[in-house]
């Protein structure tokens, strides 16, 4: 063999090994962010447009413009988007420690300037107003963990290396020394191995899960604002795998209870509640809601509102969760057994769907089904609450002009507590667990206004209220509070025998259902947080 060929082969081998090494380091750095990052100086940069206030660069102390400014949503450090300032900020300024080994406490992490509006000094009690400074720039100091703020003069009397107690929201925070991360044989990623409850009175940590595809950019803003007040790793985006990874924190914290804030629509909330049930987390976490969907029916009933607040105040969000009262919510099992009349002897597997808000058959489900088909289309480019409501209105109007669910009563048989019910002419049947349907329409309340025996709705009595809808136009009248639903009855055991293909929806998730035997009953309960007004 030629010596030159051998030398070339050695050089090629060395080059290949170097390339593989670089690729390995790059992939490992990406994967390590899945659960726990050990980098102590890595910042999470976001646009300062999120915090909606004037900020100065912590590196050069020049006023930042909204288009050219960045802030770390973990520690609050601000910088220009230019490489010069950003690289220096990454190099010289620490961020929150994500994970501490062999430690039992955390020291304050002081950040200079850019304090929230209206804060008061923890030493003298006076408002920290940067306008009192004669020179523009950075004024005052703030701890990124406990959020205590000080005037420049007051800060000079503070021991900057003292232990931090995590401040007002210490009972909601996972301290970086409270959990253990480890790598497995199957993956180089750091995974959550265990959680040791800290010595904090009434510690009931909060896990934040946000669906950033709901409510335009509101979900992403909720994540960015709450990371600054909590441990960054307990504030997570809902990914394609669902909430399983986030809920591992609640499972590992057992037997200590957790609270969960879900920022999303009714579908996202149902997804989280189903995962809690599937993972059998004990004690059950209590779920609070930041409404980002189109209907937000469960959020309305629990007092969290029909839409997110116009101004996102992280302090008020956390305080409202702390004040909230934990209540039970019935979880209904919707069991579907398909029927084929050609082979009546053959039995088919039963499909089970969990229902928390409502279940319906007919025209309202058909409108929702058409909307979901449109939203899943490649041509669906505008994601906003107003545009979604416009689509619902369009499909509802279409059903007025061209009804597709006429004579629904002939396509099914209804049993309430094993007793057959004679149905009038209808286009929809609605089964309610909560008294909010179709983006806030209160059917029980409307039904009680006609002088009949009063129906009392409860989210935890194991009983569903059943109402009929005459047409799509009837839905519009109900939403305007100028009509009443057709009262069918109340029951704990419900059964539907479907004879023809009809549209259905459960908590806003629609599908077309062929002939089937459907049973609906409460089997268990979830824990949710009900907002308490101040």
From TrEMBL:
One of its GO terms (molecular function) is ATP binding. Gene3D superfamilies: 2.60.200.40, 3.30.60.20, Probable inorganic polyphosphate/atp-NAD kinase, domain 1. It catalyses: a 1,2-diacyl-sn-glycerol + ATP = a 1,2-diacyl-sn-glycero-3-phosphate + ADP + H(+). One of its GO terms (cellular component) is membrane. The chain crosses the membrane at residues 12-31. InterPro entries: ATP-NAD_kinase_N (IPR017438), C1-like_sf (IPR046349), DGK (IPR037607), Diacylglycerol_kin_accessory (IPR000756), Diacylglycerol_kinase_cat_dom (IPR001206), NAD/diacylglycerol_kinase_sf (IPR016064), PKC_DAG/PE (IPR002219). Belongs to the eukaryotic diacylglycerol kinase family. This is Diacylglycerol kinase. It comes from Drosophila rhopaloa.
